[in-house]
Design a protein that fits this description.
Length: 201
């Protein structure tokens, strides 16, 4: 087992949670809560009292129930899901994943001494699995695929911010275009274009 493997296994909620958490209250209107969900791209919001204690969660499903019921005059308190599962900052990531899968949870509030300190979503849980190089490669591949009309002409590999684009190039002008496109992606250190002979593959 490598040192990095050990780090991933021992990762805790405090290392991946979104903090400070965006929360709502029981008195918040359905319309206002839905606006927060959609604008922030959240799957759910913790519902807290004036002291920051978690009372429930307000999810996309709860929002849809409210909209189906008419929406006007309905508050978060009438729709929120209770009881609510919470975790502590020291909860192991493996346990968080198990609970999310078992109970089909979209997010888990993180509570310390009874007060909300953060939220762990499925996205937070998955984020540590993606290296910065993976994100760069995906963005570069998307840009050059757009340029090529989504024809799979090139492969992209990234190592330490160094982008390697391999494939066939029509001419030097196309090479310059691909180089320029790749360099627009944040985190790119250098771009290397490798001409690949199709007969050799």
């Amino acid at each position: 087992m490598t040192e990095n493997d050990h780090k991933e296994i021992s990762m805790r909620a405090s290392e991946i949670m979104t903090s400070p958490a965006v929360a709502t209250t029981p008195a918040t209107s359905l319309r206002e809560a839905v606006a927060v969900l959609t604008e922030k791209g959240f799957a759910g919001l913790p519902v807290v009292d004036h002291e920051g204690r978690v009372l429930g969660t307000f999810t996309e499903f709860d929002a849809l129930r409210g909209i189906r019921a008419g929406g006007d005059g309905i508050t978060v308190g009438a729709l929120m899901s209770t009881p609510v599962e919470v975790i502590s900052p020291s909860t192991d990531v493996t346990e968080i994943g198990r609970r999310m899968l078992a109970d089909r949870l979209r997010c888990l509030p993180v509570v310390e001494e009874g007060v909300l300190v953060g939220v762990v979503s499925r996205r937070d849980l998955l984020r540590p699995l993606v290296r910065p190089d993976d994100s760069i490669a995906a963005q570069v591949h998307g840009l050059i695929s757009d340029y090529a009309g989504y024809r799979p002409k090139w492969t992209v590999e990234v190592d330490g911010g160094y982008v390697h684009i391999a494939g066939e190039f029509r001419d030097e002008a196309e090479r310059r275009v691909l180089d320029a496109l790749a360099r627009t992606v944040p985190g790119v250190v250098a771009v290397v274009l490798v001409t690949r002979n199709p007969a050799a593959t």
